[in-house]
Amino acid sequence: MATEFTASWGRDSITIETGKWAKQAHGSVVYKTGNLVLLATVCAADEPKDGQDFFPLTCEYTEKMYSVGRFPGGYFKREAKPPEHEILLSRIIDRPIRPMFPEGYFSEVQLLVQVLSADKQVSVAGHAITAASAALSVSTIPFAGPIAGARIGRLEGQFILNPTNEEMSRSDLDLVVAGTKDAIVMIEGEAAEISKEDMMAALRFAQEQLKIAVEMQESLAKQHGTVKKPVVLKAPDKDLLQSVRDFAYEKLNQANRNADKAKRNEDIKKINEETVNHFKEVYAPNDRSKEIKHFLHELEYEVVRELVLGEGIRFDGRRTDEIRQINCEIDVLPGPHGSAVFTRGQTQSLGVVTLGTSSDNQRYETLEGQKEKNFMLHYNFPAFSVGEVRRNSGPGRREIGHGNLAERAIKKVLPSQTEFPYVIRVVSEILESNGSSSMASVCSGTLALMAGGVPIKAPVSGIAMGLFSDEKGRFAVLSDIAGIEDHFGDMDFKLAGTKKGITAFQMDLKVNGLGLEVLQKAIEQAEVGRDHILGEMNKAISSVKGNLSQNAPRITQKQIPKDRIGELIGPGGKMIRSITEQSGSEISVDDSGKVTIASPSEESKVKAIALIDGLFEEIEIGKIYDGVIKRIADFGAFVEILPGKEGLCHISKLDVKRVQSVRDVVSEGQKIQVKVIAVDKTGKIDLSRKDVLLGD
């Protein structure tokens, strides 16, 4: 049955249709606002695979270039490997959707959101989350939604729901938030050093707006007559669980009080092996090892959480708001343009900075057209950082997401291209990982930039906050969570910022939502932790170094008149190539007349600037110039006194005595001093070497 529902949401009109397109999918909607048309589809396997013990969910967001009437770039002229921005938006859809499925549901689910028609003024992120939730809501697949997504901006102190892309370019806040009618499920974004009070105000505003979009989906599902398919979730064997608890609980309780990750893992592994071997004998000849391993994991979950909620003790003995030991090193590598190592507990990031010219920037294509990036932060997570062996297959979704979060945290404090005309690349190499390596990347990247002499506005630190809660209403917000607290916790809330305010944030949950009061406590506690981390970073370097690394290129920018760009380039690029060859610097000029000079050394920079200045210098009558003989004729020598500017030194003006032949006195390539004695209306220059020799 075809169903359509239209409603107003903020300034926008939203239409959601189902039962018209993609009817063989288990759930599908066509979502429209402005010229934006999204197709969201979802399918689920009837039964989980044999032995399946996890929930295999795939969320994919794709953009079709036909949606804006363009051909895809590249040789094959069709969409292929998803670009980075599609991967990031796929993650934004996945993260709030995933915790909304029932525990124990292991059937494979595939959720696809495609842009069929684009609107250059409509931001897709929030709408894509809502469309994905709507597809699930009209399907028979079990889902504890609906949820909705929204993008929030702020202009002149006023929050805006789903701002246009033009408005977002002027906004000091970019918040993507997802939630139910009464709880937040996910947040993601960046800000221009906003306060914690403004952050909470934005979340309260967002929560009110999400209610409207959730109610739209409820109305659509009710109108469509959706009936959820009954799903039989695998029930645990309570007797076996109790037997495993009696045998292993106290042992796991003791093992999980060890702060050393390697020793703790070793002890837990031994306990697990001992438990499995014990019950192999009890239940022989039946092998129930898989069930027992699952119960052991559940018991460890209980142990770690009860230590905090019941005894107020974290596994490593820290207070809930205590940060692990921090160590910072700068200038650890001689070759790169800036480097630093940030170590927090058993998490360690090596940050490395490379400075380049405009030719090094990243060019990419979106539905809005061709774009360029002058700042990149790339995150690498090798297997050795967690003591594992696995194939290195390049960055995956996690690496791309972590790098993007750290990039957004730092980019808010970078100087403008006018102030610092470099392309900047920061690479975070994770050397050890035990909790929040993305926030360690923010810290190591900041230290490396400061050590490299990049004039950032303020240092940035980052922290990951966690949460343990239970059905009794107990909860504890944890600062600087370690890997085990992330794994067994309800929340992973990353916040980065300067002393002044927040620059980036990302929150994911494993529960169906959080109230604003818990988020407020986490944001307030995070600010204290961030300030502590900044204090430790300041001990290593408290201000930006005054000089760039000697290995970094020297970039200088000059402005020349737009109508004289051709003089710098010369016929067929002859002049600009000549300056490049003579100086050893890379020269580029844009349509506005801005000249960028990238030099490998100070000497090269000075020479390039002198050559360019000389090209646009006005010739002064009576001034003595250092020139080079370019050509010789019977009647005199042509001397280049400034780049591209030649004058004639007549044979009678070559020497104080009579000259029979020009070549008796000078030769091509010879450097001589000459005096300008005349410049006519056509620009013809008359020179005299004789006047210089006589001292006239």
TrEMBL record:
Statement: the UniProt record of this protein carries the keyword Cell cycle: no
Compartments where found: Cytoplasm
Gene3D superfamilies: GHMP Kinase, N-terminal domain (3.30.230.70), K Homology domain, type 1 (3.30.1370.10), Nucleic acid-binding proteins (2.40.50.140)
Record carries keyword Zinc: no
Family annotation (CDD domains): KH-I_PNPase (cd02393), RNase_PH_PNPase_1 (cd11363), RNase_PH_PNPase_2 (cd11364), S1_PNPase (cd04472)
Positions of Mg(2+) binding: 486, 492
Chemical reaction(s) catalysed: RNA(n+1) + phosphate = RNA(n) + a ribonucleoside 5'-diphosphate
Family annotation (PANTHER family): POLYRIBONUCLEOTIDE NUCLEOTIDYLTRANSFERASE, POLYRIBONUCLEOTIDE NUCLEOTIDYLTRANSFERASE 1, MITOCHONDRIAL
Family: Belongs to the polyribonucleotide nucleotidyltransferase family.
Residue intervals of the S1 motif domain: 622-690
Xref: SUPFAM superfamilies: Eukaryotic type KH-domain (KH-domain type I), Nucleic acid-binding proteins, Polynucleotide phosphorylase/guanosine pentaphosphate synthase (PNPase/GPSI), domain 3, Ribonuclease PH domain 2-like, Ribosomal protein S5 domain 2-like
Record function comment: Involved in mRNA degradation. Catalyzes the phosphorolysis of single-stranded polyribonucleotides processively in the 3'- to 5'-direction.
Cofactor(s) the protein needs: Mg(2+)
Keywords, ordered alphabetically: Coiled coil, Cytoplasm, Magnesium, Metal-binding, Nucleotidyltransferase, RNA-binding, Transferase
Transmembrane segments: none
Domain of life: Bacteria
A Pfam family hit: RNase_PH
Annotated gene: pnp
Molecular function, one GO term: 3'-5'-RNA exonuclease activity
HAMAP family: PNPase
Coiled-coil segments on the chain, per record: 245-272
An individual GO BP term: RNA processing
Enzyme Commission designation: 2.7.7.8
The protein's name in its UniProt record: Polyribonucleotide nucleotidyltransferase
Enzyme class: transferase
